[in-house]
From TrEMBL:
<dbReference type="GO" id="GO:0005634">
    <property type="term" value="C:nucleus"/>
</dbReference>
<dbReference type="Pfam" id="PF24571">
    <property type="entry name" value="HEAT_SCC3-SA"/>
</dbReference>
<dbReference type="InterPro" id="IPR013721">
    <property type="entry name" value="STAG"/>
</dbReference>
<dbReference type="GO" id="GO:0000785">
    <property type="term" value="C:chromatin"/>
</dbReference>
<dbReference type="GO" id="GO:0051301">
    <property type="term" value="P:cell division"/>
</dbReference>
<dbReference type="Pfam" id="PF21581">
    <property type="entry name" value="SCD"/>
</dbReference>
<dbReference type="GO" id="GO:0003682">
    <property type="term" value="F:chromatin binding"/>
</dbReference>
<dbReference type="GO" id="GO:0008278">
    <property type="term" value="C:cohesin complex"/>
</dbReference>
<dbReference type="GO" id="GO:0007062">
    <property type="term" value="P:sister chromatid cohesion"/>
</dbReference>
<dbReference type="InterPro" id="IPR039662">
    <property type="entry name" value="Cohesin_Scc3/SA"/>
</dbReference>
<dbReference type="GO" id="GO:0007059">
    <property type="term" value="P:chromosome segregation"/>
</dbReference>
<dbReference type="GO" id="GO:0000775">
    <property type="term" value="C:chromosome, centromeric region"/>
</dbReference>
<protein>
    <submittedName>
        <fullName>Cohesin subunit SA-1</fullName>
    </submittedName>
</protein>
<dbReference type="InterPro" id="IPR056396">
    <property type="entry name" value="HEAT_SCC3-SA"/>
</dbReference>
<dbReference type="Pfam" id="PF08514">
    <property type="entry name" value="STAG"/>
</dbReference>
<dbReference type="InterPro" id="IPR020839">
    <property type="entry name" value="SCD"/>
</dbReference>
<dbReference type="InterPro" id="IPR016024">
    <property type="entry name" value="ARM-type_fold"/>
</dbReference>
Length: 1256
């Protein structure tokens, strides 16, 4: 056994003797200071005898690798053929490399050990080299300290952490080198009390280093060294046992036949083996206590993982010595490690132990102590760890059925429904082992002779059904089947047994399957059929359909043929037995889609096809549930595929069925229309049931030749005129009419339609849209919701996109919604989507069913909102309508935040300026609501005002960092905000603030998005609305104006607004200095000129002054007349004819509002400069003209703003999104590539040309 009292190696403190080296201190010396008296002398590196050994052979003579050239040359120069380079290149066989080293060690062990020391140093990534004089004269700690100083700190990488195939191979070669080294030296060198002592001492010192590379590399080397020593100890133990048996056999012989000489040799050999065993155990104890005990809890997870992985190897190889609680406790403690990779190594190490059932008794105490932790790890957040934990629990169960309690097993059972397939499959293996594996060979043999319900799988299938019902996750049967597919495929593919359990009557004494059990069995059987036919996991498991291997493809074909052959016969009988049960029939009707339908004709099984069609017809006649009818419709659609020869037979049966349904529907409608309000329940039921069946079939089949639209339209018109149509009939009539229109459109787009066909379809669509619009005011919510969804879908289909892709001939079918229809759609969204959920469920209790109803209702409302938002982003509904959607962002963030976010992103891509005007309009609407509720005297500290400001801040984040790309949109937003704040004067007089002045405080949130020169332009525009009296006021009611002006002056030439005077505190001297400091105009950067030119000269259609067009009526919010805003804006065309502003407003040279404001400011300054120059000399006039020209020059600010306030704005922009590291500066071209920021970084899809949106 290992001597647990062996002390850890320490550095020598003998500083007086230069030839005493800590690297050479042996294990035995630490045990016994007087070892020199009784044992052979071990070599010391400083002894004279070391220099008198015979000379080493030259590398040429050896024909192998040269020893370390550094040792040969006493530190002068380097040799590429070091051990590190040889192992790194991996070109030489490791056996020959080690043999060469052993040969050199026999000639000069100091130089050979120096080679080995430098090998470990270089494998750590250290560029330094240990010289021979360092090896002889310096202590261990000093050498390591010296190597630490020479470590290359430019990169944190070292060989063990580098990526790529070369370094992966290096790690393998490094480990192999150590293992082969010990294996080749195990008979002599490792017992010379020098080599191993030196290596262990070096690795112990390196493993305690602060340098991660040293610690990592030395720990790996030490653990592999320990593993190699365990192998040696195991061999010694085996040899000892053999020697002992030989000695006992020889000694037990009779005296005449006993060989005393052999006994003495065996005794001598046993003694020598015992001494070697003691030496090896001392070495292992030294490594374990000096390195493992400290490093298994290292700060670096990789180092901890190495220790745990190797101790698992030791326990497996030498279980007699290591498989006890003294070593198992380290693995048990590490099961709680915070890093998944370490926990993973623990579980894999334990798996290797539990796999060997002979070791289970030694693991019993460990199992009892750490079983709860292992079971809890099946829910580990790291999926890989959870998978291995489940496998380990399965091994524990295999070792002992009693080791796990029922509660432990239940914790694993439910994981078969996990969305992560490896976890579910591992749990399926556990479930199979626990419930479905048979342990009685005699009973199994007796049952194997039986077939069907009495076969071995009969009881197991019943057990599976019982498990499925008890788990109460009926909608996840496909997940359960997929989890068990790998481990229980024979059971799951026993369709014969399943069908017999469903069709045959139970024998006497056998328990009868209940209704729930039959439903569950049918559901499971359908899932197994799907899994076998499709050969891929259900939706939600796996990233997609993978390519099947040839073996898997063959298995799939065989399974499909087998299930087709059997179920073609059994399915009509199953439908006949369960034809009145809607749930069972709906599941059974899914089976034909997985058949190989060619078998009907190739196998001459047409009679079974006729039987199937007959049963489907019976099902259609007896059921009115949409789930069943849709399953029948889909089955007919599959059987009518043109690629199969059975198509004609099925088509005839389908046509006969539709004929009967159509006739019945026509007579029912006539009866209902004639009786009107006097119609009884039977008339209503006949119309509704027949209409449901026709609607379900119209979804998958072209029934236009039966002209169902006519009667549906008559029903809808009667319902509108009389207002007494049952809601279900109205909903189904709307849906059936919608399908009829779509099938007519398909015919037209696939053929060459005439003008009459187009006009006829246009009349149909127009009349149906009118009916849907009228249904929006229906008293029944389901009717209104159905009409709204169909309106949105048809407006999307028959929009301007219909004529794209070379379909210009379909132009007559394009419909554009008028203003009244847009307003009705928006009002519907506001009334039915943006509502509190509690208002819908005031009378309901908070039970589980209520929660499910709430989720379903929310899902329905999200669909309604998404349908309307699609109309906005595809430019079918005017963008200003989105203002009523955007303003709800903060209030309904949890329910609709993702939809509103995506809509905002898409609208910005359409038109940045119009989107900005829509954003400010939404804020204006919220502000107007607040004014109506609280009056003109707002409490600016209230939560309502803070909510509007927070929404504005979120909107500001959408403009991102690239201010050049969004400068026009942001400037337009400020323009509209300023006009809104000042357009309504205070009725008390001009000395009182305008009622909307507080809106400027909201507008401050967007000031950080303006460029510096644009802030000056916006500030000039603001001053047009301000009087001198306003500039001088400092009361609280004027604070929004002061704050807004300060936000515009921040970062510009006018640094601050004087709070005491209200005027710009700009110094002429400082202005002159700033102008002198600028580069001359001809030295401006070319990229600035190109950016300014492309921005200033762009042809923009934005008029100024002009208000944003708003819908006629969108909500109860007070809406302003856009023309009123223009009445309050000063006339900007006051310059004389022929001036530059007059030229700018020429339609042939139309500019954006920001350009016009900048040009007007330049002209104003030039005119004031001309008046000033008349009273000055020529020199002063020239100087002033130069200053004016400089003042007109725009200043382009870098995207990384310099002022502290701007940097804070930029930091605030990302405080609730993500941290983005930006370089200190970017050139103009790079900034142009930056995408605008959104509420989070994943919401931007700048150039996505796709038709659909991900959320819809």
């Amino acid at each position: 056994m290992i001597n647990s009292d062996f002390p850890v190696l320490q550095d020598s403190s003998n500083d007086g003797q230069g030839d005493t080296i800590s690297l050479a201190i042996s294990v035995s010396e630490l045990d016994d200071p007087e070892v020199g008296k009784g044992k052979k002398k071990r070599g010391r590196p400083g002894k004279q005898g070391a220099a008198n050994k015979k000379a080493r052979r030259s590398p040429v003579d050896k024909g192998g690798r040269r020893p370390n050239g550094v040792a040969h040359q006493n530190g002068e120069g380097t040799d590429p053929s070091t051990l590190f380079e040889v192992v790194k290149q991996g070109k030489s066989a490791m056996q020959s490399v080690i043999d060469d080293w052993i040969e050199s060690y026999k000639q000069d062990r100091d130089l050979a050990l120096l080679d080995l020391i430098n090998f470990f140093i270089h494998c750590s990534g250290c560029k330094g080299t240990v010289r021979i004089e360092m090896f002889r004269n310096m202590q261990n700690a000093e050498i390591i300290r010296k190597m630490t100083e020479e470590f290359d700190e430019d990169s944190g990488d070292y060989p063990l952490t580098m990526t790529g195939p070369q370094w992966k191979k290096f790690r393998y070669n490094f480990c192999e080198f150590i293992m082969v080294l010990i294996r080749q030296c195990q008979y002599s060198i490792i017992y010379d009390e020098y080599m191993m002592d030196t290596v262990i001492s070096l690795l112990t010192g390196l493993s305690d280093s602060q340098v991660r590379a040293f610690r990592h590399t030395s720990t790996l080397a030490a653990m592999k060294l320990m593993t190699a020593l365990v192998n040696v100890a195991l061999n010694l133990s085996i040899n000892q046992d053999n020697t002992q048996r030989q000695y006992e056999a020889e000694r037990n012989k009779v005296a005449g036949k006993r060989a005393n000489e052999k006994l003495e040799l065996l005794l001598e050999k046993r003694k020598e083996l015992q001494e070697n065993q003691d030496e090896i155990e001392n070495m292992m104890n030294s490594i374990f206590k000096g390195i493992f005990v400290h490093r298994y809890r290292d700060a670096i997870a990789e180092i901890r993982a190495i220790c745990i992985e190797e101790i698992g190897v030791w326990m497996k190889l030498y279980s007699d010595a290591f498989l006890n609680d003294s070593y198992l406790k380290y693995v048990g403690w590490t099961l709680h490690d915070r890093q998944g990779e370490v926990r993973l190594k623990c579980l894999k190490a334990l798996q290797t132990l539990y796999t060997n059932r002979e070791l289970y008794p030694k693991l019993e105490l460990f199992t009892n102590r750490f079983k709860d932790r292992i079971v809890s790890m099946t829910l580990d957040k790291e999926y890989d760890v959870a998978v291995e934990a489940i496998r380990l629990v399965t091994l524990i169960l295999h070792g002992s059925e009693d080791a796990l309690s029922n509660e432990d097993c239940e914790n694993v059972y439910h994981l078969v429904y996990s969305a992560h397939r490896p976890v579910a499959v591992a749990a399926g293996e556990f479930l199979h082992r626990k419930l479905f594996s048979r342990h009685d060979p005699q009973a199994e043999e007796a049952l194997a002779k039986r077939r069907g319900r009495n076969s071995p799988n009969g009881n197991l299938i019943k057990m599976l059904v019982l498990f499925f019902l008890e788990s109460e996750l009926h909608e996840h049967a496909a997940y359960l089947v997929d989890s068990l597919w790998d481990s229980s495929h024979d059971l799951l593919k026993d369709w014969d047994c399943m069908v017999e359990l469903l069709l045959e009557d139970p024998v006497q004494g056998e328990e009868v399957l209940g209704d729930r059990h039959e439903s569950a069995l049918i559901e499971l059987m359908v899932c197994t059929i799907r899994q076998a036919a499709e050969a891929h996991p259900p939706v939600g498991r796996g990233t997609g359909k993978r390519v099947l291997t040839a073996k898997e493809k063959k298995t799939q074909i065989d399974d499909k043929n087998r299930l087709t052959e059997h179920l073609i016969v059994a399915l009509p009988m199953l439908l006949s037995k369960y034809q009145v049960d809607a749930e069972k029939v709906a599941n059974l009707l899914q089976i034909p889609q997985y058949f190989d339908l060619e078998v009907y004709s190739s196998g001459r099984m047409e009679k079974h096809l006729d039987a199937l069609l007959k049963q489907i017809r019976v099902v259609v006649e007896k059921h009115a549930e949409m789930e069943v009818l849709e399953a029948c419709s889909k089955t007919y659609s599959i059987l009518c595929s043109e690629e199969y020869t059975i198509m004609n037979r099925v088509d005839i049966a389908r046509s006969q069925l539709i004929d009967e349904l159509t006739d019945k529907f026509a007579h029912s409608v006539e009866d209902l229309l004639q009786e009107g309000e006097e119609a009884d329940d039977d008339d209503i039921y006949n119309v509704l049931s027949t209409l449901k069946k026709l609607t379900a079939f119209h979804n998958a089949h072209d029934l236009t030749k039966w002209d169902l639209f006519k009667n549906c339209y008559r029903l809808l018109k009667m319902g509108i005129e009389q207002g007494s149509m049952p809601e279900q009939i109205a909903v189904q009539a709307l849906q059936c009419s919608h399908y009829s229109i779509l099938w007519q459109l398909v015919k037209i787009t696939e053929g060459c339609p005439s003008k009459d066909d187009l006009l006829a379809l246009r009349r149909v669509v127009k009349s149906f849209l009118a009916v849907c619009q009228q249904c929006l005011s229906n008293v029944n919510t389901p009717v209104k919701e159905q009409a709204f969804m169909l309106l949105c879908d048809l407006l999307m289909i028959f929009s301007h996109q219909l004529v794209s892709g070379g379909r210009e001939g379909l132009q007559p079918l394009v419909f554009n919604p008028d203003g009244s229809l847009q307003n009705e759609l928006l009002n519907f969204v506001l009334d039915h989507v943006f509502i509190d959920q509690d208002d819908e469920n005031q009378s309901m209790e908070g039970d589980e069913e209520d929660e499910a109803n709430k989720i379903e209702a929310l899902h329905k409302r999200r669909n309604l909102l998404a349908a309307f938002c699609k109309l906005i982003i595809y430019d079918i509904v005017d963008m200003p309508a989105a203002a009523d959607i955007f303003k709800q962002y903060m209030k309904y963030y949890n329910d609709y935040g993702d939809i509103i976010k995506e809509t905002l992103s898409k609208t910005r891509q359409m038109d940045k300026i119009q989107c900005a005007k829509t954003l400010i309009l939404s804020l204006q609407q919220l502000f107007n609501e607040l004014i109506q509720d609280q009056g003109p005297n707002l409490d600016r500290t209230s939560s309502h005002v803070s909510g509007i400001k927070e929404l504005a801040r979120r909107f500001a984040l959408t403009f991102g960092l690239d201010q050049i790309k969004t400068r026009e949109a942001v400037a337009t937003l400020h323009k509209d905000g300023i006009e809104f704040a000042f357009k309504v004067p205070n009725p008390k007089g001009p000395e009182y603030p305008p009622p909307n002045l507080a809106f400027l405080e909201v507008l401050c949130e967007f000031s950080s998005k303006l460029l510096r020169q644009d802030k000056k332009t916006v500030h000039s525009y603001l001053e047009k609305f301000m009087t001198e009296y306003m500039m001088e006021r400092r009361e609280d009611v004027w604070l929004p104006l002061i704050a807004y002006r300060n936000s515009l002056l921040t970062g510009g030439d006018d640094d601050r607004l004087s709070v005491t005077t209200g005027a710009s505190s700009t110094s002429k001297a400082s202005t002159v200095r700033s102008k002198r400091g600028r580069p001359p105009q001809h030295k401006r950067r070319p990229d600035e000129e190109s950016v300014e030119g492309s921005w200033v000269m762009r042809n923009d259609t934005l008029q100024t002054p002009g208000g944003l067009h708003t819908p006629q009526l969108t909500s109860t919010v007070l809406r302003e007349n856009p023309r009123q805003a223009a009445d309050h804006i000063p006339d900007q065309d006051s310059s004389e004819p022929g001036s530059e502003p007059d030229y700018m407003h020429n339609p042939q040279m139309q500019m954006s509002w920001l350009d016009q404001q900048k040009m007007e400011e330049v002209n104003r300054k030039e005119r004031s400069g001309m008046n000033y120059m008349k009273s000055r000399s020529a020199g002063v006039r020239q100087q002033v003209r130069g200053l004016m020209e400089d003042d007109a020059e725009p200043i382009f600010e870098d995207v990384m703003m310099s002022s502290r306030g701007q940097l804070e704005d930029m930091n605030e922009e990302f405080e609730d999104t993500m941290v983005i590291d930006l370089p200190a500066s970017r050139n103009r071209r790079e900034r142009a590539e930056l995408r605008p920021d959104f509420f989070d970084s994943t919401a931007i899809m700048e150039d996505d040309p796709g038709f659909g949106m991900q959320m819809f």
